[in-house]
Specification:
The structure holds three protein chains of three kinds.
Chain A: E1 4-14, E2 17-26, E3 31-35, H1 42-50, E4 57-62, E5 65-66, E6 77-80, H2 92-101, H3 107-121, H4 136-148, E7 154-158, H5 166-183, E8 187-191, H6 194-200, E9 203-208, E10 211-216, H7 218-223, H8 228-233, E11 240-249, E12 252-257, E13 260-263, E14 274-281, E15 286-289, E16 293-302, E17 307-313, E18 316-322, E19 333-338, E20 344-347, E21 353-356, E22 359-360
Chain B: H1 2-16, H2 20-48, E1 68-73, H3 80-95, E2 99-103, H4 112-119, E3 126-130, H5 131-140, H6 152-156, H7 160-165, E4 167-168, E5 171-172, E6 175-176, E7 183-187, H8 198-210, H9 238-241, H10 258-272, H11 284-292, E8 298-301, H12 306-313, E9 317-320, E10 335-336, E11 339-343, H13 346-349, H14 353-366, H15 369-379, H16 386-395, H17 400-409, E12 413-414, H18 422-438, H19 443-462, H20 471-498
Chain C: H1 17-45, H2 63-70, H3 73-103, H4 111-123, H5 126-136, H6 143-150, H7 162-190, H8 194-202, H9 207-218, H10 220-235, H11 239-244, H12 256-266, H13 270-295
Helix pairs in contact in C: 1-13, 3-7, 3-10, 4-7, 7-10, 8-9, 10-13, 12-13
Classes of the chains: A alpha+beta, B alpha/beta, C mainly alpha.
Chain lengths: ~375, ~500, ~300
């Protein structure tokens, strides 16, 4: 297994499309997820690593060996494609053995290898079937088997679970994580599903517009998003974003949000100044109280383990999540306020996180 | 766990496959349906065809004032011929306002469309075609015998040759509108005086060829003659020059005679012995191209291409009769054919007596003196009417080209118009063409094979079945096939159903 | 662990007369456009329908067939037909396939220009193309012989010698038809998902191995179908031999279908022409049934 390093990788398709200045390191045995909405450049990045796409700029190292200009077959990288890319005319066994056929390996070794991998994947009883005769989840396993059988230095997966139904997806997620631990493969995994990212990743990076926005552990992405994009992309339902203003007057720093004033601790601002910000509150950090922002309950969604309540405040919709119903009925007015310890503030102009957990963020941009 | 997975996928598989019973039932049905349709169709075909009825005797009114419509396939070549046809037609319709003529100018002479249409009973009422094609069609029963409809003085106004050309077994089956054949064109730039004998013609050709340069593109040839290219129409002129003929008076081919063999040898030698013709000519167009560009001295061709040659050679173009063969004492006699109008039989077109009357009026109009004079001046067609011929001779007394044609007209053969002639053309192309292209065959063995092929085809076509058809035998065979197919289909489908 | 409790009951065997109604129009159209002409052709081949018996022809049984089987030409014509069909198919179908692969290269620039260009020979009226080729292959003054002359090769009678005539018509047919096969294969090649190629590329397969291990097995059915279809089409392809050599010299380029035409329309022996056509169809039918048995190519149509 190997470690991967991308340095200033760029690929310009023109019209501001492509990937730009991508830097990250994937350690040996790590499960690394690239997360982002469609068109953000995550798949392109993966294809550049695979060698199916060439980088215009930058360098790429696998185990300290530069592979930037290597053809795919010399990189010792395996890839699992979104729609599995199984050969319909071959049996499961032949599909799994396909990468071995080109290696100098005896027939017996090939069979043993395929058998071993199939056993680990639980598909050893399907070996003589054709891909058209097995279910989606089984096909997924075959595709994994074909990638695993080569024992590559790096393992790439391009949204491998997106063609499965929801239940199977959850199941396969667990399976994937187990397999990755078992084989100890260095894996780069591309997805647009943040739940997959949080459940699978040792570390994850979020891409937007062809650039890496944030690179951290999956929980950090949730707890301290670098900017409004990450904040709204990670989390379901997304974080409430409310335009607000920080005011310093009478030696008090107050957050003015929708006409309400909330005292702010530890916010660095000069007396008499104002600063436009975005208030970010996770649904679970939205509280109902006796006073605060006046809101009207519009929709209640009860999914069993939690209840989502959607409030209308003017044109805004604010979501509140709790383990149980707040007792309000639809159409009822109430007062909402953010948990002061959990609220986040983002710079209005740059969208960067400036305030979180009751204090200013280090190196946060000051005034715009 | 794994077992249930297996079962699940098995079930998935069986759902994907077509339902057995349904498909095989359909297959069985298809077999039965097709068999039934074939049997049904067979009956339809067997009983729906006209099984030979004699020509209807039709009395034709002397005049008619009822409005009548006739269909005509004019078949004239674009330009002069069609122009004259149309102006005559316009005048005709003015004279006979009760007759409407529907013309299809797109159809050529010798069209295979006509046979199909006639067989289906959809032929036009009037068709303009060559005398030999029309002869074969007359023999098939598609053409009306006009002998009883036309009076003798009308017939006598045409030249004897053209009337003979349109007569088969004593029946006049059409009215000629022109007459022509091939002669010997020569380029006066290369040959000053026309050859009077075959020997002289070969000398001239050899002299012209001798003076050529070596490269292919600028070579000048004495007498390019692609023996295999023309289906024996031009070659037919040379059989009489050697005392031979295509068919003898009993209408039996004599192509393997020593005279015919000598004639074909003579033509073959132009390329391979006398070397006055290039090898590998594949079309008449190639001969014409050489002649048009001053790269050949002679070409054997008809008056229909005269305006084309004039446009290239101008006053250097001249024409003369094919020269006398002083070795045999005979003249070559090109086939002197004729195009004319004929009326179709009721069987071929469903023509009514008033339509016959209208058609007779129409073809008399299209072949009258005015039309033929116009055709001569506008399209260069040589007239078939005696009076129009006199007019043409008068018009062209000083024209050297016309003089050449008149000289040629003295030595011609009437185009054989009996249907057996049909076998001559394509077989000539196949057999003599092969001889010419190879340059290695033995001429007399080729002529023997040619003769055999024509005889065999005539026998095959004219043969009547030796014994009456054994219907029990054929009915038995058909019944057996149907039963075997039905039983086979039954077992086939039932075998599959069990699975 | 679930056992299938009951065999699935098949309720579809019942004849549904309403559904017969839906296919009735097709059956009627087929009966008139397909069955009737075929039956009439079969019937004509059993009569003496020719210029001598034009209206009063009658049933003569298998006389035409026995005449054909007794004629020395039949063997030559069948041999010519086979050489023509096989010769054309083995060059034009693989050529079309290769060109389709080349034209579908991912990195090829100006694909659309090439596509329009190679469509050209096919879209151009075939008889004009044949006319041009017949001039180019002419013995005297033909471009081909002129070019050969430049390199010191003496002129060859491309169309008029039995040795080269068949070669020439096959060549011209190849030139005329390979764009069509390129187009047919283009759609087949494009139907292969790109991932299958990329997966092979990542596993270390080069382009030749990808062709033999991935592309060809994936297109097995299509290749079989197109090849056999091409063969059938060529077998009945009338106009190239008819317009280029007219079956000559001799009968060295006569194929069954041109010979049928010759008999029917040059010799006005319609019955014999029909018999030749029926023989041609029967040979073709046997061929198709046998090849379908081995290749299952018809399954592409199901």
């Amino acid at each position: 297994m190997g470690s991967l390093s991308l340095q200033n990788i760029g690929r310009n398709f023109g019209k501001n499309k492509g990937v730009f200045d991508v830097n990250f390191e994937v350690e040996n045995g790590e499960f690394f997820v690239i997360l982002g909405p469609s068109g953000c450049g995550k798949t392109t990045t993966l294809r550049i690593i695979a060698g199916l796409e060439t980088a215009d700029t930058g360098h790429m190292f696998l185990d300290d060996r530069e592979i930037t200009n290597f053809p795919p077959r010399m990189r010792n990288i395996a890839m699992v494609f979104q729609n599995y890319a199984l050969y319909p005319f071959m049996t499961v066994k032949q599909n799994i053995q396909f990468p071995l056929k080109i290696m100098k390996m005896s027939k017996a070794d090939q069979d043993a290898k395929a058998e071993e991998v199939a056993k680990m994947l639980g598909i050893d009883d399907l070996m003589e079937r054709k891909p058209g005769e097995i279910s989606g989840g089984q096909r997924q396993r075959v595709a994994l088997g074909r990638a695993l059988v080569r024992e590559p230095a790096l393992f790439l997966m391009d949204e491998p679970l997106s063609n499965l139904d929801a239940k199977l997806r959850t199941q396969m997620r667990v399976e994937l994580k187990r397999l990755q631990r078992e084989f100890n493969t260095t894996t780069v995994y591309v997805t647009h599903d943040q739940v997959e990212a949080t459940t699978l990743a040792d570390r994850a990076c979020i891409m937007n517009g062809g650039r890496v926005v944030q690179l951290e552990g999956p929980l950090e992405l949730y707890n301290s998003p670098a900017d409004t994009f990450v904040a709204t992309f990670v989390g379901d339902p997304p974080m409430n974003m409310i335009p607000a203003k920080v005011k310093a007057a009478n030696n008090e720093v107050m957050l003015e949000v929708l006409g309400q004033l909330i005292p702010l601790k530890n916010f660095t601002i000069e007396e008499g100044q104002e600063r436009e910000v975005k208030l970010g509150v996770r649904p679970e950090d939205t509280l109902v109280g006796d006073q605060g922002i006046e809101a009207n309950l519009a929709v209640i969604q009860n999914v069993g383990k939690s209840v989502y309540e959607y409030f209308k405040v003017g044109d805004l919709t604010i979501v509140k999540q709790d383990t149980k119903n707040s007792g309000l009925v639809i159409g009822q007015n109430c007062y909402l306020f953010p948990d002061p310890a959990k609220l986040m503030l983002f710079d209005e102009a740059s969208g960067k996180l400036i305030y979180k957990g009751g204090k200013m963020v280090k190196n946060a941009p000051t005034t715009a | 766990m794994s077992n249930s997975k297996k079962d699940a996928s098995k079930e998935a598989k069986s759902r994907l496959l077509p339902k057995h019973g349904n498909v095989f039932w359909l297959k069985g049905f298809a077999v039965v349906a097709v068999t039934a349709l074939f049997i049904l169709g067979g009956f339809v075909v067997l009983f729906s065809h006209p099984q030979g009825s004699g020509p209807l005797s039709t009395s034709v009114p002397a005049t008619s004032s009822n409005s009548v419509t006739i269909t005509v396939w004019g078949s004239g070549s674009p330009g002069g011929e069609q122009h004259v046809f149309n102006s005559t037609l316009a005048y005709f319709e003015a004279q006979y306002p009760n007759i409407t003529v529907q013309d299809s100018p797109a159809i050529n002479v010798a069209s295979t469309n006509f046979a199909s249409a006639a067989h289906a009973g959809n032929a036009p009422d009037v068709y303009r075609d060559t005398s030999d094609n029309a002869g074969a069609l007359y023999a098939s029963g598609s053409v009306l015998n006009l002998s009883s409809y036309l009076n003798q003085s009308f017939v006598n106004s045409f030249t004897t040759g053209t009337i003979k050309d349109w007569t088969l077994n004593g029946a006049l089956y059409g009215v000629p509108v022109n007459t022509n054949g091939v002669g010997l064109y020569y380029n006066m730039k290369l040959v000053k005086t026309p050859p009077k004998t075959v020997y002289q013609m070969l000398q001239d050709a050899a002299n012209v060829t001798k003076n050529t340069t070596s490269t292919t593109n600028t070579s000048v040839w004495g007498m390019p003659y692609g023996l295999g290219t023309n289906y024996g129409y031009r070659a037919a002129a040379w059989f009489p020059a050697f005392g031979g003929q295509i068919f003898n008076s009993q209408e039996v081919p004599v192509l393997n005679s020593s005279q015919d063999t000598s004639a074909v040898s003579f033509l073959y030698n132009l390329t391979y012995v006398k070397n006055v013709s290039p090898k590998g000519l594949t079309s008449m167009a190639q001969e014409q191209q050489l002649f048009e560009t001053n790269r050949s001295a002679f070409i054997i061709d008809g008056p229909w291409d005269q305006s084309l040659y004039t446009s290239y050679l101008g006053s250097n173009l001249n024409v003369t009769a094919l020269p006398y063969d002083n070795a045999t004492g005979h003249y070559p006699a090109p086939i002197w054919g004729s195009i004319g109008y004929f009326i179709t039989s009721p069987q071929a077109s469903g023509i009514t007596s008033s339509q016959i009357w209208a058609s007779l009026k129409f073809i008399q109009f299209e072949t009258n003196l005015t039309a033929q004079k116009n055709l001569f001046t506008k399209a260069g067609d040589f007239p078939s009417l005696k009076a129009a011929g006199a007019f043409a001779a008068n018009q062209t007394a000083s024209d050297p080209l016309a003089a050449g044609w008149i000289a040629q007209e003295a030595h011609t053969q009437i185009q054989p118009n009996f249907p057996q002639m049909n076998f001559y053309w394509s077989n000539f192309h196949t057999y003599v063409g092969n001889l010419y292209d190879n340059g290695t065959h033995n001429v007399s063995s080729v002529m023997q094979a040619f003769q055999n092929a024509v005889v065999s085809q005539i026998n095959q076509e004219t043969a009547t079945p030796a014994a009456p058809v054994n219907w029990t035998l054929y009915g038995g065979i058909i019944a057996a096939v149907v039963i075997v197919a039905g039983v086979g289909a039954f077992f086939y489908t039932s075998r599959k159903k069990k699975n | 662990m679930t056992e299938r409790a009951m065999p699935i009951k098949n309720n579809n065997r019942r004849i549904d007369f309403k559904s017969l109604l839906w296919i009735l129009p097709v059956l009627i159209v087929l009966a008139f456009l397909d069955f009737y002409p075929i039956l009439e052709g079969i019937y004509f081949s059993l009569t003496d329908f020719n210029q001598f018996h034009f209206f009063n022809y009658g049933f003569v049984g298998f006389a035409n067939y026995s005449y054909i089987f007794g004629s020395p030409e039949l063997r030559t014509v069948i041999a010519n037909t086979l050489v023509w069909s096989v010769g054309s198919t083995v060059v034009m179908v693989p050529a079309g396939f290769m060109l389709a692969l080349i034209m579908n290269q991912k990195n090829l620039r100006g694909k659309y220009i090439y596509r329009s260009l190679y469509l050209f020979p096919w879209a151009f009226p075939a008889f004009l193309t044949i006319l041009v080729w017949s001039n180019m292959l002419a013995y005297n003054g033909g471009v081909v012989n002129d070019l050969l002359g430049l390199v010191g090769i003496s002129s060859i009678a491309w169309l008029t010698s039995p040795t080269y005539a068949m070669f020439s018509i096959i060549f011209v047919n190849f030139w005329l038809s390979f764009p069509y096969y390129t187009f047919v294969y283009t759609s087949a090649v494009q139907s292969i998902p790109n991932e299958l190629y990329e997966a092979a590329e990542m596993d270390g397969y080069g382009s030749l191995r990808t062709l033999t291990r991935v592309t060809l097995p994936l297109l097995k059915r299509q290749v079989a179908f197109i090849t056999i279809f091409g063969f059938i089409f060529t077998w009945n392809n009338f106009y190239v031999p008819f317009l280029l050599t007219g079956g000559g010299p001799g009968i060295s380029t006569q194929i069954l279908i041109t010979y049928s035409y010759l008999e029917a329309f040059s010799y006005s022996n319609y019955a014999l022409g029909a018999a030749y056509a029926i023989i041609s169809i029967l040979i073709l039918l046997v061929f198709v049934i046998v090849t379908n048995h081995y290749t299952k190519m018809m399954s592409i149509l199901y």
